[in-house]
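Thread: Newbie trying to understand structure tokens

Hi all, I'm a second-year student working on a class project, and my supervisor (Dr. K.) asked me to get a predicted structure for one chain before our next meeting. I've only ever worked with sequences, so writing a 3D structure as a token string is new to me. If someone could post the tokens and maybe explain what I'm looking at, I'd be very grateful. Here's the chain:
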Amino acid sequence: MSKTTDQGAKAVGPLAGVRIVDLTQFVLGPYATQTLGDLGADVIKVEEPAGDRQRTSGKAPNSPTMGPMFVAFNRNKRSVALDLKDEPGRSALRQLIATADVFIHNMRPDSIARLGFAYAEVAKVKPDIVYVEAMGFDPAGPYAGRQAFDDLIQAASGACGLNAMVEPDATFRPLPTIIADKTSGLFAVIATLSALRHRDRTGEGQYVCVPMLEVFTGFLMAEHLYGETYIPPTGHFGHTTTITPYRRPLKTKDGYLAVAPADRKQSARFMALGGIPDAYESERFTSKTSGAERVAEYHAMMDEAAAAHTTAEWMVLCFENSIPGMRANRPDEIFDDPQLKETLFEERQLEGEGTYRAMKPGLRFSKSPVSIRRDPPPLGRHTDEVLAELNAVKAAE
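---
Reply by user tm_fold:
Sure, no problem. This is what the structure looks like when written as tokens:
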């Protein structure tokens, strides 16, 4: 069933009443501000007259400025088109900042400074502003000021070599997802919420820096420092359980199943259900003389057992027998997953484009529920509305 945005819907999420002025583009910033919008904040997306450059990524049914990448990262926002190269546009932005709680951007520091919206200038307009600046690299390091994109951060963080820790001949390449941008976006959300909490306690605004390389490398390598945690090292680099080549879904009669037995009893039960009773006492297992041989035989038996039933049958058997197991979906199978069909995907009507598939916010709050209040906006859709609000505030002063 398709749903249509109620533009007059009142925000009831935990950030209801918080206004965010958003000068972000691409993925990192829009993902962060979309999350804040999901939580109830009034996110005003300020775009240049040509729009966020992500608007033209991919094909939309009608408008070239409503591409799927833009739609995926820009719900629960109002779009205001301002030319910040001209004084009228800059003046309007300053008026908007004066009404805001948060100002967030992911422009390079020298670029935002040229426009007149570095932290010092913004703080003159709104002294208690929470000013969040997402950038590629911590300004204290030698990479300060360099351009940064997801592939570059994945390269510097070590992400490109993760697959080679499992398969030595694997191509040295980024993970096939925009993970550095999205992870850094979540850190920007954490930083924003923390600074708002500080302001609630003290009345102080502040400057917040979110450096992609540092936050993403810390996230990615938390488990992989492993034996290199101590100096001198106590073992090898890379978390043993994570990088084993046996960490993979098992092939069933008709698909794949991920199984994560917590102990020997659960794995033995799984193999018995798959037609291999008393697996650990069997000659094929006990005849192996080395630990490595026994590990290989164990996984061979798990593979053999998995093939005895369909994925749907295993889902029932695992649940009934308290074995941690889950169907493993290919990307194009997630629409048919019964859990995701019920909880994540929703068909909605997008202004000027028709029906689109939205992914609902995953968080749940019992007292301040999150929701999709606004679908991704056409470029400048709310310019007149927001400027009228500013004029009303000015007239009331």
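A couple of things are worth pointing out once you decode it. DSSP finds 16 helices and twelve strands in the chain. The domain at 250-327 is CATH 3.30.1540 (formyl-coa transferase, domain 3). Feel free to ask follow-ups in this thread.
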